[in-house]
Amino acid sequence: MTTHSTKKLHGDLPSASSKTALADRKELAAVAFERTRMPMVVTDARKPDLPIVLANKSFLDLTGYAADEVVGRNCRFLQRPATSPIAVAEIRASIAEERDVSVEILNYKKSGEPFWNRLHLSPIHGDDGRILYFFGSQIDMTEYRRVEALEASEHRLLMEVDHRSKNVLAIVDSIVRLSNADDAALYAAAIQHRVQALARAHNLLAERGWSNISVEELVRLQVTPFAATRVALNGPDIRLPATVVQPVALVLHELAVNAARHGALAKPLGKLSIDWAPGQSDDGFRLRWKEVGSGPPPKSTKRGFGTVIVGAMVEKQLKGQFEKTWLDDGLLIEIEVPATGSRPV
Q1: In what residue span(s) does the PAS domain sit (predicted)?
Q2: How does DSSP classify residue 34?
Q3: Could you tell me which of 132, 160, 117 has the C-alpha nearest to residue 47?
Q4: DSSP readout, 61-127?
Q5: Would 27 be classed as within a structural domain?
Q6: Residue 75 sits in the same domain as residue 44
Q7: Least confidently predicted of 26-30, 108-112, 184-188
Q8: Most buried of 42, 210, 282, 309 (most Cβ within 10 A)?
Q9: 162-195 b/e (C-beta count within 10 Å ≥ 16 → b)
Q10: What is the DSSP string of 215-256?
Q11: Is residue 219 part of a domain?
Q12: Mean pLDDT over residues 277-292, rounded?
């Protein structure tokens, strides 16, 4: 029988405590874990497939499962086909890189009832630095989402149409038309994540007063959630005008999602490098996206929906060029965008 020593694990000290409570902190921590209204689980990172080893009553109440139906299982039993594979890819990347992550994901109770779960995952390392456990907390965001949707609807009715909305709506229209509609749930999830990618770019533009945004900042914004430690970035300080920031953001999002689901970032040793430079005669910019370690090229050369969207954004929206080349152990994508105002500074 395998046992795990607790001598190599010492919990974080309380931020505030009396001498008496500090002496009893282990017992108090156990009481707090069980009695808190926030659903919590702990998984064993030393065992295959990260099985659950601790779950509190709030987690059982939220999901509807009994204790013997939870312990020993990976948390993916809460997922169903409509769960976004993009959110799953983000969680897998954080586990592989042993870092904190917060992500909103559609999960399901034992009864089959869906709920929106704001999941926070955090690694627990031993004194020797080795990963021992993952701690996960959940917040049921279903009611909040419903209220938020109602408030957003009312707000949209009261707002005047922004003078920049034409460009954004044209991109959204492309997303709706080009996304794979074979499965209604996955179609909705794909559109949601793509619109969120646009929203991140929109928020960045709003924070900067709709001024020019650097290529590097935009790349980090869209790619870091999927490749925090396995991506190398290189290029001069090229600024993108507001009119091209959102379509370029969507292009980067599609490339990152594809790499996380099917490409180099889906492999344990896969790596990604992104380089950019001024375009011909310093007009616009060129971007080189290279994945290594994703394995041999696929047998089918049919363009996926992500590739279709990237091609449409680059060639139609940005009036640029897009070229995709399969390598022996990876993928090379080269993009050139002629954009007025996109020049090195």
Answers
A1: 25-74
A2: H
A3: 132
A4: HHH---GGGTTTS-GGGG--TTS-HHHHHHHHHHHHTT--EEEEEEEE-TTS-EEEEEEEEEEEE-T
A5: yes
A6: yes
A7: 184-188
A8: 309
A9: eeeeebbeebbebbeebbeeeeeebbebbeebbb
A10: HHHHHHHHHTTT-SSSEEEE---EEEPHHHHHHHHHHHHHHH
A11: yes
A12: 87
Q: Which residues contact 126 (CB under 8 A, 6 or more apart)?
A: 8, 9, 132
Determine the Cα–Cα distance for residues 175 and 169; give it in Å rounded to an integer: 10
**Residues 33 and 56: beta-carbon distance below 8 Å:** yes
Work out the average pLDDT over 262-280.
91
Q: How many CA within 13 A on the CB side of residue 177? A: 10
Helix, strand, coil percent values for the chain (each to nearest 5): 40, 25, 35
The CA R_g of the chain, rounded to the nearest whole Å, is 23
Domain count for the chain: 2
Residues 120 and 223 in one domain: no
Q: Are residues 185 and 328 in the same domain?
A: yes
End-to-end CA distance of the chain: 63
Alpha-carbon separation of residue 137 from 12, 58, 134 (angstroms): 17, 10, 10
Contact 131, 125 (CB under 8 A): yes
Q: Map tokens 């046992």 to a residue.
A: 3
- Would the pTM of this model clear 0.70, i.e. be above it? no
Both tokens of residue 109? 């109770």
Please tell me whether residues 25 and 79 are part of one structural domain: yes
For residue 14, is it within any domain? no
- Residue 281 sits in a domain whose CATH number is 3.30.565.10
If asked whether residues 256 and 133 sit together in one domain, one would say no
What pLDDT score does 300 carry?
Answer: 66
Same domain, 113 and 237: no
**In-domain check, residue 3:** no
Same domain, 256 and 186: yes
Residue 333: how many CB atoms within 10 A of its CB? 21
**Sheet with 131-140: strands ordered across:** 52-55, 40-44, 131-140, 114-125, 101-108
Which pair of structure tokens corresponds to residue 199? 């929203």
Residue range(s) defining the domain that contains residue 295: 163-344
